[in-house]
Fold:
Amino acid sequence: MSTKVITIDTQILKKNDIAAQENRDIFKQHRILAINLLSSPGSGKTSLLVKTCSALKEKLRVAVSVGDLQTEADALRIAGAGVPVVQINTGTACHLDAHMVQLSLKVLPLAATDILFIENVGNLVCPAEFKVGEDMKMMVLSIAEGHDKPLKYPLMFRESSALVLNKMDLLPYMNTDMNKVRNDSLALNPKLKIFEVSCTSGAGIDAWATWLSGFRS
Amino acid sequence: MSTKVITIDTQILKKNDIAAQENRDIFKQHRILAINLLSSPGSGKTSLLVKTCSALKEKLRVAVSVGDLQTEADALRIAGAGVPVVQINTGTACHLDAHMVQLSLKVLPLAATDILFIENVGNLVCPAEFKVGEDMKMMVLSIAEGHDKPLKYPLMFRESSALVLNKMDLLPYMNTDMNKVRNDSLALNPKLKIFEVSCTSGAGIDAWATWLSGFRS
Structure:
């Protein structure tokens, strides 16, 4: 059985990589910076995007593709920030693949987009394995998830260019060892850029948004 | 492509179901209550098991199989509660399947076990799709994950017999709408038994442990 599974996984990943390259060509043609945003369920990806889109939209043209198994709740929240957004419902799939993202590109105003955020399905495992044509992966970790996540889910930390530590306002009420989070993350990925934010208080959002806008200024 | 993928998924699930039935037979033979414990990463499954094993072990013989991509950190924490535990490292797999659980049964003291907890990989999607031979699925949701999770990940809420709302000590610092969590969960699954606990303060653990022990008394 295992041989068969591996073969099929390879096929799926190969077909995905072809579609990812097509997406990459589309992003290049329109000079779009594409960011694949990853995290556990409930880390605050959507809250971060609402704050980030609000902070960036005066300077840059931002759009969002957002993946969820069901509901358009996240798209409605992001639309409130006044940016174009498409909800992708994956049904039972635990990650976005390049084909799903390609469908969303057909309805977004690509010629009027500088940065596209692709908010993946909440999952610390499979979304790290499927390229969707992005320039960079970035991840969000709620500090309420605990300090053991880098060592337990190493691929996502290795694959990401930035780590946003969210819900920093909860730190006084948690046992989370922030030095362990930072040290274990950097041991896996020495180039990882780490931000500390609170989407509730707004702390840290400006530094994160300024860093992001540097890629397109 | 989609036809091929669906065919393979079916094969995988069919082979998994055969192994799940074998596990079920093993549990029946040894009169073991097997509970498949599911949640997002960082909801507190391991903390809950440490507290639960401590509360139950004077009355019942408890054992644990715990799944993670990497590390034996969770097994070491659970072993601290003085119960037999096996760590299953799944590598890149985002869920436990029945074969993986079957491997752990070969090294656990089955003849001396009343309740086996199977702590799944942290993931709100795929673990709900793979039976491992369990009598019941139960899930943990950290209230720091937000009130939108039932509608966004409905299968897990439908499949679970109990929902443990953890990190209740954080409620004063959160915007989580607990009525929405409860109402949306019960709309998906009217028979769902809901517990509110804090593994940090210990609140609610006794009621949960007493309910669990009722299945084997």
Q: What stands out?
A: The first strand of chain B starts at residue 33 and ends at 39.
